[in-house]
Amino acid sequence: MNTEAAGKDFIRQIIATDVGAGKNAGQVITRFPPEPNGFLHIGHAKAICLNFNVAQEFGGRCHLRFDDTNPVKEEVLYADAIRDDVAWLGFSWGKHEFYASDYFDDLYHMALKLIEAGLAYIDDLSAEQIRALRGTLTEPGQNSPHRDRSVKENLELFQRMRAGEFGNGERVLRAKIDMSSPNMNMRDPVMYRILHTPHHRTGDTWCIYPMYDFAHGQSDALEGITHSLCTLEFADHRPLYDWFIEKLELHQSRQFEYSRLNLGYTVLSKRKLQELVSNAVVSGWDDPRMPTLAGMRRRGFPPQALRKFCARIGISKNDSWIDMSILEDCVRDELNETAPRAMCVLRPLKVVITDYPEDKQEEFAAPNHPQQPEMGERNIQFTRELFIEQDDFMLEPPSKFFRLGPGREVRLRNGYVIKCEEVVYNDDGSIKELRCTHDPATLGAAPEGRKVKGVIHWVSAAHAVKIRVHLYDRLFQVETPGAGAHAENWLEDLNPDSIETLEGCLAEPCISEATPAQAYQFERCGYFCLDAHQSTAELPVFNRTVTLRDSWVKVNK
Ligand code: ATP
Ligand code: MG
Prior knowledge:
Strand order of the largest sheet: 12-25-26-27-23-24-13
CATH architecture of the largest domain: 3-Layer(aba) Sandwich
Radius of gyration: 31 Å
Shape: elongated
Low-confidence stretches: 1-6, 552-557
Helix content: 25-40%
Strand content: 15-25%
Number of strands: 27
CATH topology of the largest domain: Rossmann fold
Number of helices: 13
Largest sheet: 7 strands, mixed
Bound molecules: adenosine-5'-triphosphate, magnesium ion
């Protein structure tokens, strides 16, 4: 084995061996083959990273191929979203964008070839009847009464199917393989079905469409894919793909299967995600709680973090559940490096600095990143009236509470040390404001011998920008939604509190320049990113991308 491949995953080891042995003239061509019937999710990111990275590592290329064989479920909207998402993740396929529908002519001629060779036949049985004769895992299937039609009759019927002479479901073309095969996929699988539905790319040219299994392997072959990488559930389909390739004498691409990504507290199945969207459980495919790439992007996850996550979880053949906290850690790692800091008070409490003149205003320089001076600084304004976080004040604080309480001192981040002298109440007994004094000698660093432990964030009342904030939690309240007895009622596992909206949050003015692509760390509150869909000129809306620490585990376990 190539020493460079040692320690790499099994797929890279195989490819390194193939390249070393000069197979396919040393070329590596992979593909990412989505069905355009939904948005891509984080599981697809694993497949995308694998295919594109492997191709790049071996000096090859990766195709983006839409496996668009089912006109009923597919839409242009999905293909557009998929293209956007793959590009956003940071991969490019150049001119190598393909569609299974580009091969409909080829596939039709392949079908004719198999009919002529006596290897495919037209069946008049209904889908239900076919299923009934298919047998089970322990019992062989039975031959259809139409299995032994003559080649001539099959050809004629297939052409009539194509010409639109039959209604949906009246006839199918099946491969003639083996009704007693232990592999159910080999029991005369359907190759073509009748669907009087226009296709988003071929219009109404066709009323018969190839099945995914009759298109997938041959599409790989037509594109000269050398290594066809897919998830484990396709392992049982491989003998069928190989059978078609062999009988049709096509280029042999090798298929390798790896385990799917399963992520805790969410679902990664397009069917289920589609259900969340159509039942309006979420606001759309790009709802920031969705495990879709569009949702994660809107939530503020940087693409680098997703790529890091895919590298961290690796590739294997073992089915496993990955903890959401691994993904969130990758997001934190990335944002900790790249997100500028800003202050935002989520639940404001007014503070009046009684010994600070009403008409006075100072500006303090604050670094945009504590460890990265090259990210520059900004000015923050200090005035007599400020806001701090309600949580940072307690009427009767325990001794370990290093923030504000009656008679206590705290440092305002990048500002002065203040002392709470008086609490002013509303008529209903709630706290209206705190009256504090400041110590002018404490700006920046405290003088010798002056110890104040707590540091809190704050904003100037006159300068703060009002924003709305969405805080997110897991979409589901159990790690494996729909597991066991919940298979049918998986929606019951939804977390009813997956979103909390805070109005009237107050942020320092620099956030007016925020863009959706640049997350901020609101100091002490987490990472946040502008939601362009929901923001208006008057009211910016921010999503919390992720908390500063993994508080979820502590609270819920
Ligand atoms: P779903 O089961 O969610 O509907 P799919 O497999 O039907 O997904 P495709 O569009 O066919 O979705 O997937 C395109 C590629 O992405 C396939 O090669 C598939 O194996 C891979 N893929 C899909 N889901 C995952 C996952 N959870 N982990 C890794 N790869 C995945
Ligand atoms: Mg699929």
